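Final report, results section. Input specification for complex C-07:
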Amino acid sequence: MTKRSPAHGLPDEGSGRRRQILEIAAQLFARKGYRGTSMRDIGEQAGVLGGSLYHHIKSKEALFVELHDSALDAAEERVAVAVATQQDPWARLQAACTTLLDIQLAPDSLTMPMMNDFREVPGPVREQLVARRDRFENLFRGLVDALALPPNLDRSIYRNLLLSQLNTVADWYGPGRLSPADIAAQIVAIFRHDND
Amino acid sequence: MTKRSPAHGLPDEGSGRRRQILEIAAQLFARKGYRGTSMRDIGEQAGVLGGSLYHHIKSKEALFVELHDSALDAAEERVAVAVATQQDPWARLQAACTTLLDIQLAPDSLTMPMMNDFREVPGPVREQLVARRDRFENLFRGLVDALALPPNLDRSIYRNLLLSQLNTVADWYGPGRLSPADIAAQIVAIFRHDND
DNA sequence: CCTACCGATCGGTAGG
DNA sequence: CCTACCGATCGGTAGG
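Structure output:
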């Protein structure tokens, strides 16, 4: 019996209070970005003053890094599980895309949205975040390499295009006639090219 | 003989000084975002103090809106010209994509990059920018509607995916083995599906 | 967890 | 175009 993280990707260890603060912070970062979220904003939602948060966290930067890494850990596991249920390379890719969009488009999504534009985050921290994200994206390298693509498609470009496509859906998606799974299906339909 | 804007999309009327300041501001906004660029930063590059800029502009917000609108005006014209040289629907789309990527990936690009994440910009101004961008995107509605796509592809989703794909290339593209035109060709190759 | 505060930075202005 | 400044806001801390 392996330990399973909850959907939001925050470990459930530690004091409930800290955990609650992390959830609030994640939601605000996702909605308003790193610079657009002040410690006082987070405090307000938690019912305390901004300065009081420093009993639970070291700094705003460390808080963001922790949230970002937890989100990617959880996403990585969920995607890996979904991929493992399929054998066909295109089915495996579709499973990965559907899972990723489920995570990013969940209405209460605490996790990934907007953790992609790192220009707001101070330089030194940014490199840390980019390194973690690159590790995550390696998961897709294997999936793309297994595809039988037409030879005119460059696999490296193809992978970058697919990932940026997936990471950017939250910018324009509004819950309406199509579900996250529908969008994932459309993306895979577009990116699907069999080498015949 | 119609008046032609320069590639950077800033009208060449008015005092050269103001024009120079606009160019500097555009470059900084593109590199560091709206909130990441202070008026003092712009002043420093221009060789004056931040406060002195207000002789040439009304406010930071008005400055950004002016730059954004000029960039879209110029892009709109260049894309329209490129599209008009082709008759085949897929060739027209490819011409549009190539032109747009040329603009966004130009090494000194003052114009469009990063003028896409509007979360940094204050609410009231944001609506203005979004409205202008929507008008620009209508250009692509016509191009997509002219395609003979397989019926399982939703044209509205398809258009959103294509546009977000084009707008996001600057986030990961590094000048290397592939040119902007190469990337455009890869994107069109992926998005190309003939209804057979 | 609050009070009370720090040094820094922001957009913007008056007055010359 | 500068000097000198405004009110606001920021991340963070000391001391209780």
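Residues 48-49, 51-52, 55 of chain B lie near DNA strand D (CB under 10 Å from a C1'). The CA atoms of residues 148 and 187 of chain B lie 17 Å apart. This concludes the modelling results for the funded period.
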